[in-house]
Every structure is written in C-alpha cells, then in structure tokens.
C-alpha cells in the first residue's frame, strides 16, 4: 500500500475532517486533508454553540486554547404564541469553569483552530481544492475499492489507502460511492441565521450574564405556519438569531426565511434582546434532520464517512448538536483507518471497527435515543397546538380574576386543552414519546 | 529575473489577494517563460502573508521573499521596503491597486525609487522585446506603450487568470523555504511612513456643490445642469418575492415608458 | 492649494473642473493643447497657468514640474489615469506624502476613500503634500468673472519614461456602452458567469447594453471593456438597472445622471439602493430569472 500518494485522504476540513486528520497524522500516517474553501471553516456557518467535551482526549485542556466566545451558563427554552411566552430557564455556574459544558464560538475560528492541530500533528492541509470524483480499483478481486480522489486541480488525482468523506451535509463523496439513497427534502431542515453586533456590556445586561458567561435560548412557536424552531445565543460582541425550518413546509408556505426571522425578532419576548443589533452577517445552510432514518452506509470499500456527511448531526427538532458528533465520528474514522492500514485490510470488513465505535458511543446511542424527537418536536401538534395550550394554562394560573375564585389546575388544563383543540390520546402518545426520547 | 509584488489582505473576514495581484503573478510567470528567466515573488507583511507566497510558489514562482512588517505602512514606505528586493529585476509586476488601500500608488513610487519606466493600469500585454502594453485612459480611450529596459508594470485583474497549481506543486509549496528579507526599515516605522492619526468611518457621499456637468460643449453642460429629469425624486423601496419583484420592475419600466417601443 | 491637470490634445481629464474648484479655482494645465483646455474652464477657474509640453511621461514631467511647484505646499491632481500616474512621481520627487484617492482635500483634513469605496479614512495632512481627488464626488463651484491665464514654459529633459506608440479611440466594444441610453449592469451579487449571458438576453429584451462592476471584470466573467466606472467606461444612460451592485463611489461616479435607476440588492442600505428610484430588496439572481420569464410575454403584450 506504499505505492499510494498518501495513506489517508480526508475530504473536507470541518470538525470531522480535522479530527480524523489529527488521529491519522498522530499515528504517523501520511495524511492529506482537502478543503474546497480558501481556508478551513471558510464555508461554514458563522457561529454556533458547541459541546467540545469530546475533545478532552484529543486535545487535553482544549479550553486553554480553543477560540471560544462565551461559556454557556444559561440555557432556556421558550414557548411563544403571538402575544405570550413561557420560558424554562436553567442556569449553572459550574458551566463557567473547566471542564465546562457548552460554548459559543465563531466556526471559521473554531474550525481553523482544529485544522491547525491537524497540521501540527503532521497532516498536510490543502485548501482551494475541491474533490470532484472518486478513484476506484476496477479489478474484480478488489471489488471496486476506492483508491483515492479526483480534484479540480491539474494532475489532480490523489491515491490513498483510505478515503474519509467529511464533506458535510449532502456529501458528494458518499453519494459518489453510492452509500446514499437520493436525498429527500423531507430529511432536511434549513438553518438560517443572522449575526447582530451589539456592545458587550449591552449583551451582558440584556441576557443577565457577566464576563465570559453566555446564553443559549431555544424557541418553539416562533416560526409562523412553518414547522421549526428558533434560537438566540450570545457571542462576545454579537448575538446570533436564527430559525431552523422544515424544508417541505417552507416550500409549501411560500414564505421566505428572512421574513420568519424578522417576525420572530418583532415578538415582544425577543425584541428587547435583539433591538439595535446591527446586521453583521446572514447565512443559511441545510441540516440533516432525520437522524438514523436517513443515515447512509458509513463504511465502504476503502472509504469511511463521518460527520454531517454521514447525517450524524443530531437535530432533535431545535436542539442542534453537530460539531461534537462530527468531532467524535471524525476521531473514530481516523482511528479505524489507522487500525485497518496497520492490519493491511482496508476493505469494508477491515474498516468494520468504525461502525462498532460509533454504536458503542454517544454518537449512535444519542441518535437511537432521540430517534423520535425530530418528528415529535416538528409535529403539527407540538408546533401549533401545544404552545397555545401551555401558555394558556400558564396564563390562567397566573391570572387573578377576582371576584371569581381560582379554578383548579385540573380544570384549567381540561379547558385549555379543549380550547387549543388538543386530543388527549395524541397528547398521551406524545408525552410517552417525549419521555422515551428526552426522559 | 522577473519580480511580482503581492499584497496579502489579512483581516479574518476577508483574507486573500486581489484579483489584480493574481493577474500580476500570472503575467510575471508568462513574462518569465517568454524571456526564459526566473520569477521572484515579494510581499511586505506579517507571517500570515506567507500564504500568498506559497500559492505563488505552487504556480511556478522560483523564489519567494517576505519583508516582515506587521504594521500598516503608507505606499511610499511599502515601496521603500520592496525596492531593494526587486532592484535587480528586469520587470516588476504589480496589481493596479490593492483591495484594501487601493491607492494604486505603490508601483509608481517603486518606479520613482528605482528610476524605471512605468506602465500602470495595464489591460493588455504583448510579450515582445521591448514590451508592448495597453493601458486605459479617460473616456474609454487607451494608449499603447513601448516599455524599454527595467520597468514597473501594474495590471488590472481582468488581464489574466492565474493558473491553477497541481496538487503536488501545491503540497510541495507548503513546506518550501521562503527567503526572509529582514524587517522593513525602522525609519519607515516612524515619521510619515507609518499610518498615524487615521479615523475610519463608513463611506458617506460628499454633499455635491453642483452636479458636475456631463457633456462636451458648454451647451450640453448647461442642459445637463438644468435638466429637470436629472433631479432625483425620492425613490420607492420594495421587499418582495422574486416573482413579485420582477412584476413590480416591469410595471415601473412600463410606467416610465421603456416598454412602449 | 493648486490643481495640477494633465491635458492631452486639448482634452481635459475626468474631474479636472472639480479638482480646480477644490483648489479655489487655481490650477496649472500641463500637456498639449493647454490653451483650448483653458477655454473650457471659464466659470470654473480663477487663475490658470498653462505649461505646453507634449509626450506625456510621468518621470520626466515630475522632474520638470518640480521646479515650478516646490513653493506650492498643496498639490491636488484628479485621480484620472494620468493623474494617478503622475501624482506619486511628483510626491516622490518633492519628497512629500501622497494622499491618494481623496473625497475631499483641505490644508487641515483629507478624507480618503478606502476599502473598495466602503470606508472613509480621515487624516490630518502634513504641511506640504500631494493628493489625488476622486472625480465625480465633489461637483464644481461656478466662479464669476474672467479667468486669468498665464503661460510659462518648461523643458522636459528626456527622462526614463515609456514611449507612447499610439492612442487608441474608445474600444469599439465599449462604444455601445458609453453611448447607450439604457444599461443593465451586474455586480458581485450575481452568483456565476452565466448570469451575464442572462443579462445580455435581458438587455436584448429592453434594448439595453450590458455593463459590469470592477469586481466582476476582475473575475474575468466579462471583458474589462464592460466595466463601468472611473477606471472603466464612463456612461450616461437614461435608464440604469443595477443587479447585485453595491454602488461603490468608483462605480457610481462613472454613471452619469440617469433619469431612472432600478437597483436589486439584498442589502437595503448600500449606496446603490439609496440612489435608486426603484430599490428592490431581493435576490438579484432569482429576480433575473423571473424577469426573463415574465418580460417576453409582457413586451409581447405591450405591442398593441
Ligand atoms: C444553522 C445551523 C446551526 C447550527 N448550529 C449548531 C450548533 O449550535 N451546535 C452544533 O454543534 N452544531 C450546529 N450545527 C451543525 C454543525 O454545523 C454541523 O453538524 C457540523 O459543522 C458538521 O461538521 P462536519 O465537519 O461534518 O461538516 P462541515 O462542518 O460542513 O464541513 C464540511 C467541509 O467540507 C468541505 N467540502 C464540502 N465538499 C467538499 C469537496 N467536494 N471537496 C473538498 N471539500 C469539501 C466544506 O467546505 C466544509 O469545510 C448547525 C448547523 C446549521 C446549518
Ligand atoms: C482606484 C480604484 C478604481 C476603481 N474603479 C472601479 C470602476 O471603474 N468600476 C467599478 O465598478 N469599480 C471600481 N473600483 C472597485 C470599487 O471600489 C468596488 O470594489 C466595486 O465597484 C464593487 O463592485 P460590486 O458592487 O459588484 O461588488 P460589492 O461591493 O461586493 O457589492 C456586491 C453587492 O451585491 C449585493 N448582493 C450580494 N448577494 C446578492 C444577491 N444574492 N442578490 C442581490 N444582491 C446581492 C451585496 O449586498 C453588495 O451590495 C475601483 C476601486 C479602486 C480602489
Ligand atoms: N504590502 C505589500 N506587499 C507587496 N506588494 C504590495 C504591497 N502593497 C501594495 N503592493 C503592490 O502594489 C499594488 C498596488 O497597491 P496599492 O498601491 O496599495 O493600491 C498591489 O496590487 C501590489 O502589487
């Protein structure tokens, strides 16, 4: 296998690709990391909330050096109707200190930082280079093993023992390899985000945080007729406001994402948070939503697929975790490649360790656990009926309409459920699903 | 030896080199090929600027030099930092203006310091000896210049596309050695060399004293000045889906009478 | 303050009159046909000095002019091609700082256009300096009375300059553009080169010529002869349709004074949207598709 240009070629320098490269390069493999953008992370969403604990093994004390904006110490979930809002607000001071929990970061910086680690580990990073095809060994005994990639550069073919596809959602490489069925719009949501500039102290005051503390808010019932959810989170001197929308509904409703964000920003519960923010950046990106049900074959003959390319992004409706899954799957793909190359078997069987690693860890466990979550959270009931029921109940509880005596909670619940047109059976089933998923 | 000057624009959001500089690299390479001489690439900037040198090496530049300068300098200072490196070249290729500063004056200062013939804003080149170039003048006119002896040329981005480097060349360039050329002379750090006392604000048009009259003859100018239709009435702003937007545009065009004929 | 204007065969460069206004009507005209050029500046200039020399050469001219200009602390040239050629050579020769591409110049403050027309950098200038003024941003002050014209002679010791082999008239390919009454132009907001083939189609439907911004011509998506602006073709259409164009000053100052401007842009705040009679906030690419969908029927229907 030494007649190849590289031991491992990794397509895409996002979190998955860089972490795969770190593992491979640290094991002494000749590793090439290809990125279509001018630098790692250049094509990526401007910011996000990341959960980098998974880096503990890969980059000990990562928090000392990672380009983090704020440490998330407050998470709230908001339920909105046109003129009401109900928040569940959790604050944990422990999350402001190592080993931390969630953090907001600018993805171009974060991805670049990870890629730098790959290069430091000995990998070669080549940007401005787009992979346009796969090289295969056509001889019968090889079973069409993937032997490298074709790029858009002159003399652009690069051979390798193992190719790792980390090229993100809608992976071109995985499709080329025939690991995907044809993508189905039903399986994707559209993420759209505005980044707004505000002075740090204004953000601190509005969100009730200090120093490096940050806030992450998920919102249901803010996307009008389109099923989806919203999010607001704080960077150091910007805040991100966005929505995640069901593609099919979006198309059907003929509304534009910008309009939905605009409406959300006008809501009395959101407006005070975002007012006066100057638009700094607008971005949109597909999110693989359907989790398990859309995951491709992740191991091919001479090929591994990681991160969003393998639809490993955990999008439980509005709770978005992708970076940590990308990092983990990238690591495991890297480790598997190392193992397989050492054993001299890079066939699908030889790369079997990857699947094992994935299913033994949170990567697939979480996905199995939250299997039903997306459909649930994006279901019409949760989207359009429950919010008005729940806020209705809250209103009745907090409302004082003397001389009338306070109604009992059971009665309120009964009446509000009726008013909102929620059927008990559906409610029970959803509650059960929710418990199975999140409980 | 042929030289090319490349400016790396460093800020996190937009980093890279201008299309004009890429064109300059391509023309330097062609010039080198046609005169079978090697090409040297020079940049004045911080370590981040190494990237544009490596990209140039990947494309076939022989030597790459970075004059270290991690501070903002004015054009004369940049030229002063460049000139010793390119002093012995047969020709210095530059972009006609850098994306950020955009004064387009570094090449001219370079020509002055090296006492060379200059051709700025080149839009066409004929690689014969002596070199023949076409540059823009006002009003769409152009002039053809014959450039003899050592020269400084600045080109527009549209003149040439920079060739793509092969994977191998690109990879090799990443670890290729760059010749350090010391630090930009300290003298330029002080005095007029360094940008000082600059306040930056978003561009706002200046209140025009009077519409600058267009037109060649006094009469035209008078007409231009007194033309009622030139006075701009407050405009209409619409936010609409593409189909509606197009519909509105067509309505308005029709209303203005552009669809009548 | 003194304006330094380079004249070729009696033809004034873009921004000559504005530069002279910026210098309170004082200027020197250098080059060939300076006398007839002076005549064109009545009502703009107070006192002019003409220096008749031919064969433009920035090196030689800087040398020759230096002697005449040393005592003038502030020299302003229009940022026209020739002005941008000569100004740095003058600054170098006189050992003064150069403030290039200014929107405004005064002894106490210079405003420089930077960042591709997106920023203004204000500086307190040195006591003596050379500056270039962006044409089209200032306008001209009308002055009463006659212009005093003084003629001085200067000798250009032959210097190391490129030789002009020929002067080409405007590129045939640009004639249609510079004379077009209707222009559809595309900028960096258009997402790929094929959009400009669509623009040509749209132009055909509207009887309009196709223009572009510098960013686009730099990408090689269309020839440089299609570039509208101070370093491109100066146009003066009645109708200007701008798709995905921010309206940077170097572009808009090449625009003349259209009766009607339509701008399609996702950013409602950019200058081109401010200029527009109809400002459409939308994706220019999609709108372009739609226009090509809808216009044919419309124009077909419009015949009756
Ligand atoms: C709106 C939105 C918000 C999100 N918020 C969060 C969040 O808050 N927290 C979180 O954890 N996750 C979030 N995610 C998900 C997260 O962004 C992804 O899960 C994560 O980026 C996946 O990483 P990756 O390395 O697999 O793919 P990517 O990060 O997409 O990287 C793929 C890389 O491959 C490159 N590439 C693609 N094709 C080619 C090719 N042919 N040749 C060469 N290179 C190629 C791309 O340029 C890119 O750099 C969000 C996603 C969206 C859309
Ligand atoms: C010395 C000098 C001379 C110059 N001469 C010229 C000249 O002669 N002519 C010239 O044109 N420029 C010239 N320039 C360059 C000029 O400064 C600007 O950089 C250029 O005009 C910007 O072109 P643009 O509007 O296409 O690109 P940008 O400034 O990048 O604007 C792109 C616009 O498209 C919008 N947009 C993005 N996506 C979309 C979408 N999907 N739909 C709709 N809109 C979208 C953006 O909001 C933005 O407003 C010169 C610069 C210098 C320094
Ligand atoms: N720091 C620099 N290093 C190398 N070349 C430069 C630098 N600044 C300007 N140049 C060259 O001079 C040209 C014009 O730049 P400017 O005069 O800044 O508009 C650029 O296109 C480059 O070719």
How is this fold's topology laid out?
The complex is a heterotrimer of chains A (439), B (261) and C (304).
Chain A: E1 6-11, H1 15-26, E2 31-34, E3 47-50, E4 70-81, E5 84-91, E6 102-106, H2 107-120, E7 124-126, E8 131-136, E9 146-151, E10 157-165, H3 172-176, E11 188-197, H4 200-207, E12 213-220, E13 228-234, E14 238-246, H5 247-253, H6 257-266, H7 271-274, E15 278-288, E16 299-300, E17 303-305, E18 314-316, E19 319-321, H8 323-343, H9 353-360, H10 362-369, H11 373-377, H12 380-398, H13 409-420, H14 424-438
Parallel strand pairs in A: 1-2, 1-10, 2-7, 4-12, 10-17
Antiparallel strand pairs in A: 3-6, 4-5, 4-6, 8-9, 9-10, 11-14, 11-15, 12-13, 13-14, 16-17, 18-19
Chain B: E1 2-5, H1 19-34, E2 39-45, H2 50-59, E3 63-68, H3 75-86, E4 91-95, H4 106-114, E5 117-126, E6 131-136, E7 142-147, E8 151-155, H5 167-175, E9 179-183, E10 199-202, H6 218-226, E11 236-239, H7 242-256
Parallel strand pairs in B: 1-2, 1-4, 2-3, 3-9, 4-8, 5-8
Antiparallel strand pairs in B: 5-6, 6-7
Helix pairs in contact in B: 2-5, 3-4
Chain C: E1 2-7, H1 16-22, E2 26-31, H2 34-39, E3 47-52, H3 58-69, E4 74-78, H4 81-94, E5 98-105, E6 110-114, E7 119-123, E8 129-133, E9 148-152, E10 163-168, H5 172-179, E11 182-186, H6 194-206, E12 209-212, H7 214-218, E13 239-243, H8 249-252, E14 260-265, H9 271-275, E15 278-281, H10 284-302
Bound molecules: flavin-adenine dinucleotide (FAD) (2 copies) and adenosine monophosphate.
Description:
The complex is a heterotrimer of chains A (439), B (261) and C (304). Chain A has 439 residues and is α+β, with helices and mostly antiparallel strands. Chain A has helices at 15-26, 107-120, 172-176, 200-207, 247-253, 257-266, 271-274, 323-343, 353-360, 362-369, 373-377, 380-398, 409-420, 424-438; strands at 6-11, 31-34, 47-50, 70-81, 84-91, 102-106, 124-126, 131-136, 146-151, 157-165, 188-197, 213-220, 228-234, 238-246, 278-288, 299-300, 303-305, 314-316, 319-321. In chain A, helix 1 (15-26) packs parallel to helix 8 (323-343). Chain B is α/β, with parallel strands linked by helices and 261 residues long. Chain B contains 7 helices and 11 strands. In chain B, helix 2 crosses helix 5 (167-175) and helix 3 crosses helix 4. Chain B is globular and about 65 Å long. Chain C is built from 10 helices and 15 strands. In chain C, helix 3 (58-69) crosses helix 4 (81-94) and helix 6 packs parallel to helix 10. Chain C is elongated and about 65 Å long. Classes of the chains: A alpha+beta (439), B alpha/beta (261), C alpha/beta (304). Chains in contact: A-B, B-C. At the B-C interface, helix 1, helix 4, strand 5, strand 6 and strand 7 of B face helix 1, helix 3, helix 4, strand 5 and strand 6 of C. One flavin-adenine dinucleotide sits between chains C (101, 116-117, 187-189, 213-216, 227-232, 244-246, 248, 250-251, 254, 264-267, 270, 283-285) and B (97, 102, 104). One flavin-adenine dinucleotide (FAD) sits between chains C (101, 116-117, 187-189, 213-216, 227-232, 244-246, 248, 250-251, 254, 264-267, 270, 283-285) and B (97, 102, 104).
């Amino acid at each position: 296998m030494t007649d190849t240009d590289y031991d491992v070629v990794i397509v895409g320098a996002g979190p998955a690709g860089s972490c795969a490269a770190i593992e491979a390069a640290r094991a002494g493999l000749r590793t090439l990391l290809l990125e279509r953008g001018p630098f790692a992370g250049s094509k990526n969403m401007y910011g996000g909330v990341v959960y980098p604990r998974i880096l503990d093994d890969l980059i000990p004390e990562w928090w000392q050096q990672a380009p983090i904006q704020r440490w998330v110490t407050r998470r709230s979930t908001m339920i909105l109707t046109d003129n009401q809002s109900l928040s569940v607000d959790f604050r944990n001071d422990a999350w402001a200190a190592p080993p931390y929990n969630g953090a907001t970061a600018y993805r171009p910086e974060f991805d670049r930082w990870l890629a730098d680690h790959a290069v430091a580990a000995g990998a070669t990073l080549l940007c401005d280079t787009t992979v346009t095809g796969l090289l295969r060994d056509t001889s019968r005994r090889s079973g069409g093993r993937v032997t490298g990639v074709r790029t858009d550069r002159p003399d652009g073919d690069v051979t390798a023992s193992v190719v790792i596809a980390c090229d993100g959602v809608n992976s071109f490489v995985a499709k080329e390899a025939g690991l995907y069925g044809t993508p189905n719009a039903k399986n994707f949501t559209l993420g759209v985000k505005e980044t707004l500039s505000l002075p740090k102290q204004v953000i601190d005051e509005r969100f009730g945080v200090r120093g490096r503390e940050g806030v992450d808010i998920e919102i249901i019932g803010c996307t009008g007729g389109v099923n989806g959810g919203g999010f607001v989170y704080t960077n150091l001197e910007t805040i991100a406001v966005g929505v995640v929308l069901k593609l099919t509904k979006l198309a059907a409703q003929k509304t534009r994402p910008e309009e939905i964000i605009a409406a959300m920003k006008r809501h009395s519960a959101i407006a005070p948070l975002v007012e006066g923010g100057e638009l700094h950046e607008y971005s949109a990106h597909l999110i693989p939503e359907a989790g398990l049900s859309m995951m491709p074959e992740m191991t091919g003959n001479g090929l591994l697929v990681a991160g969003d390319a393998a639809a490993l992004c955990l999008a439980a409706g509005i709770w978005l975790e992708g970076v940590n899954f990308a990092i983990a799957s990238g690591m495991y793909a890297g480790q598997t490649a190392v193992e397989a190359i050492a054993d001299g078997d890079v066939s699908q069987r030889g790369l079997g360790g990857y699947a094992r690693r994935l299913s033994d860890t949170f990567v697939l466990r979480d996905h199995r656990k939250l299997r039903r979550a997306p459909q649930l959270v994006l279901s019409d009931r949760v989207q359009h009926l429950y919010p008005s029921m729940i806020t209705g109940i809250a209103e009745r509880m907090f409302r004082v309409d003397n001389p009338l005596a306070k109604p009992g909670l059971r009665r309120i619940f009964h009446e509000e459920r009726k008013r909102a047109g929620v059927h008990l059976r559906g409610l029970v089933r959803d509650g059960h699903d929710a418990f199975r998923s999140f409980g | 030896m042929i030289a090319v000057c490349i400016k790396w624009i460093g800020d996190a959001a937009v980093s890279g080199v201008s299309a004009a500089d890429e064109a300059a690299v391509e023309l330097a390479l062609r010039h080198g090929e046609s005169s079978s001489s090697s090409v040297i690439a020079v940049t004045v900037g911080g370590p981040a600027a190494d990237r544009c040198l490596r990209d140039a090496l990947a494309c076939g530049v022989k030597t790459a030099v970075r004059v270290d300068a991690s501070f903002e300098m004015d054009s004369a200072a940049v030229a002063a930092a460049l000139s010793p490196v390119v002093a012995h070249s047969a020709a210095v290729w530059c972009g006609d203006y850098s994306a950020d500063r955009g004064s387009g004056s570094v090449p001219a200062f370079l020509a002055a310091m090296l006492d060379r013939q200059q051709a700025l804003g080149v839009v066409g080149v004929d690689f014969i000896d002596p070199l023949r170039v076409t540059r823009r003048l006002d009003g769409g006119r152009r002039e053809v210049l014959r450039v003899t002896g050592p020269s400084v040329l600045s080109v527009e981005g549209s003149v040439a596309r920079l060739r793509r480097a092969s994977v191998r060349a690109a990879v090799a360039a990443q670890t290729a050695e760059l010749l350090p050329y010391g630090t930009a002379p300290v003298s330029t750090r002080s005095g007029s060399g360094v940008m000082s006392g600059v306040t930056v604000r978003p561009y706002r048009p200046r209140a025009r004293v009077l519409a600058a009259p267009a037109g060649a003859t006094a009469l035209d100018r008078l007409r231009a000045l007194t033309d009622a239709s030139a006075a701009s009435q407050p405009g209409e702003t619409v936010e609409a889906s593409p189909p509606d937007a197009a519909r509105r545009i067509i309505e308005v065009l029709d209303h203005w009478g552009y669809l009548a004929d | 303050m003194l304006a330094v204007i380079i004249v070729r065969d009696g033809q004034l460069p873009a921004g000559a009159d504005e530069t002279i206004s910026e210098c309170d009507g004082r200027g020197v005209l250098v080059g060939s046909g300076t006398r007839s050029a002076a005549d064109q500046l009545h009502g703009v200039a107070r006192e002019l000095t003409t220096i008749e020399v031919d064969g433009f050469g920035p090196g030689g001219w800087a040398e020759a002019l230096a002697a005449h200009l040393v005592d003038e602390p502030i020299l302003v040239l229009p940022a026209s091609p020739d002005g941008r050629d000569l100004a740095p050579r003058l600054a170098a020769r006189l050992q003064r700082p150069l403030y290039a591409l200014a929107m405004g110049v005064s002894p106490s403050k210079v405003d420089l256009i930077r960042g591709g027309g997106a920023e203004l950098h204000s500086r307190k200038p040195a006591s003596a300096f050379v500056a270039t003024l962006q044409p089209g941003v200032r306008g001209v002050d009308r002055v009463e009375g006659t212009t005093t014209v003084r003629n001085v002679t200067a000798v250009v010791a032959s210097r190391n300059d490129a030789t002009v082999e020929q002067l080409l008239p405007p590129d045939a390919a640009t004639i249609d553009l510079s004379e077009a009454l209707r222009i559809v132009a595309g900028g960096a907001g258009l997402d790929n080169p094929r959009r400009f083939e669509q623009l040509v189609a749209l132009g055909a439907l509207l009887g309009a010529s196709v223009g572009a911004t510098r960013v686009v011509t730099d990408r090689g998506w269309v020839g440089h002869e299609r570039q509208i602006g101070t370093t491109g073709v100066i146009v003066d259409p009645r109708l200007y349709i701008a798709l995905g164009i921010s309206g940077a000053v170097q572009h808009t100052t090449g625009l003349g004074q259209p009766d009607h401007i339509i701008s399609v842009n996702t950013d409602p705040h950019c200058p081109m949207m401010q200029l527009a009679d109809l400002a459409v906030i939308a994706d220019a690419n999609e709108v372009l598709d739609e226009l090509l969908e809808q216009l044919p029927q419309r124009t077909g229907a419009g015949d009756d």
